[in-house]
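TICKET: design request
STATUS: open
ATTACHED STRUCTURE:
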């Protein structure tokens, strides 16, 4: 408005189009359009008696403001006001505009139509369509999710950290379980499942979850790739993992909707001395508060509904709880050992230079090659000596040692050398080295020692009989 009034005031003062375009930064074609409005109203440059009120009245004639006073292009939509309002209750703005243009031929752009809808006093919104999802049979399904509760300061360490709530809700009875944790890692995710099954005393046939990395490594509607540890947990308890669609929280509404109630009833306005006290209160809340209320949809108490209907139809608990295990990979070194969490473990020497899958639990470390378990060791601690099994090394009368570094001539020479460049790794008997550089593991393409005339009379150590032993070539 003020820009248009300024243009008329400069024009009334006698400024030329060139000067007005330079001073006001407006194109001359635009200036001519607005000056024609003033000339059509009977105004002239240097006309006496023209005040600011006159210019405002002229502005209101051409650019009315406010709801019910559409602009020039929007004035074409006034006759269709009722139709537009009725259409916006069921459809989007773009759909209403397209149908109006197709039916009436009104020459209004989509941008003008959106500006007209914005001037409505209370723009009608399309009603949210809620699709009723019938409940599955009792005992068949639970829905799980993480939700942020808030901040908590540990009284012992004075450390401020966020607390997340793992929630599991049975679909039919709405009986909940809540596990509070400061992290959302794999250990917390699996530990919460184990605690939930122990709390309910039953296991569902199917678990519906979203696509967090602790459960689903690669989301796919038909063939999702599950986390190995979570897939192992599902196999142990016997339930089916059913991930929802990406960015579709309504696929698991039974656990999404109570998050606000959980945050208000359990978390807000309370403080705890430790995480253990927090989870003890969460279990009591699930049993005595959330489990004893009359649910608005089912009309029953969730605890009683669960015990009467869902628990008999669910799967029984295994005799012992599942033990958390993590998966990693390790490569077999030239000494037939793998390093896992800074501890060395021996594996059968036939898997030299292979990349093995490693399952690490609290008590043992298992090595897998192409899905087959090839070795199991008791789990060691950092600083332990290598966990070796003599059966993992070749059947020779030499012990396996580390290869020597170059340039260390006075260090003890390893009693055996291993050929590592052939397609099939095998072990070679000990021979005297040519120089300090050859005191480590050898290259099978190079000669193993000096000519026979220059060799020492006695070799340091017994030599294996050629063509014998476990590494002899097969006929």
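STATUS: resolved
RESOLUTION: sequence designed for all positions
ATTACHED SEQUENCE:
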């Amino acid at each position: 408005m003020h820009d248009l009034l300024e243009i008329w005031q400069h024009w009334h003062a006698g400024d030329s189009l060139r000067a007005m375009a330079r001073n006001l930064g407006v194109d001359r074609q635009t200036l001519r359009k607005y000056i024609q409005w003033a000339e059509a109203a009977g105004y002239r440059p240097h006309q006496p008696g023209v005040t600011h009120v006159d210019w405002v009245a002229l502005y209101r004639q051409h650019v009315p403001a406010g709801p019910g006073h559409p602009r020039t292009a929007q004035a074409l939509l006034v006759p269709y006001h009722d139709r537009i309002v009725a259409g916006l209750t069921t459809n989007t703005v773009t759909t209403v505009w397209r149908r109006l243009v197709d039916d009436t031929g009104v020459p209004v752009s989509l941008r003008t139509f959106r500006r007209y809808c914005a001037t409505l006093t209370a723009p009608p919104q399309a009603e949210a369509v809620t699709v009723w999802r019938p409940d599955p049979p009792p005992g068949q399904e639970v829905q799980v999710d993480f939700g942020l509760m808030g901040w908590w300061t540990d009284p012992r360490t004075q450390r401020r950290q966020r607390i997340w709530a793992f929630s599991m809700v049975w679909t039919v009875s709405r009986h909940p379980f809540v596990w509070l944790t400061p992290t959302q890692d794999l250990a917390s995710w699996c530990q919460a499942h184990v605690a939930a099954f122990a709390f309910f005393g039953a296991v569902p046939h199917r678990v519906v979850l979203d696509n967090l990395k602790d459960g689903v490594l690669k989301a796919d509607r038909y063939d999702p790739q599950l986390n190995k540890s979570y897939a192992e947990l599902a196999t142990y308890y016997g339930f089916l993992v059913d991930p929802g669609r990406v960015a579709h929280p309504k696929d698991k509404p039974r656990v999404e909707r109570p998050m606000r109630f959980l945050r208000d009833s359990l978390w807000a306005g309370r403080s705890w001395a430790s995480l253990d006290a927090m989870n003890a209160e969460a279990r009591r809340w699930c049993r005595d508060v959330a489990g004893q209320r009359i649910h608005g949809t089912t009309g029953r108490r969730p605890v009683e509904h669960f015990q009467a209907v869902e628990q008999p139809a669910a799967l029984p608990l295994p005799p012992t709880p599942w033990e958390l295990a993590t998966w990693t990979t390790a490569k077999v070194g030239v000494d037939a050992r793998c390093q896992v969490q800074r501890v060395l473990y021996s594996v059968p020497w036939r898997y030299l230079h292979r990349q093995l899958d490693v399952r690490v639990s609290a008590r043992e470390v298992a090595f897998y090659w192409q899905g087959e378990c090839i070795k199991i060791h008791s789990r060691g601690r950092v600083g332990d000596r290598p966990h070796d099994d003599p059966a993992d090394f070749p059947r020779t009368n030499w012990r396996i040692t580390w290869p020597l570094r170059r340039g260390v001539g006075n260090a003890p020479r390893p009693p055996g050398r291993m050929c590592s460049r052939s397609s099939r790794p095998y072990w070679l008997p000990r021979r005297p080295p040519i120089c300090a550089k050859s005191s480590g593991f050898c290259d099978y393409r190079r000669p193993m020692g000096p000519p026979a005339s220059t060799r020492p009379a006695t070799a340091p150590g017994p030599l294996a009989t050629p063509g014998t032993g476990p590494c002899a070539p097969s006929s």
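CLOSING REMARK: Residues 66-70, 397-475 have pLDDT under 50 and may be disordered. The CA atoms of residues 135 and 172 lie 6 Å apart.
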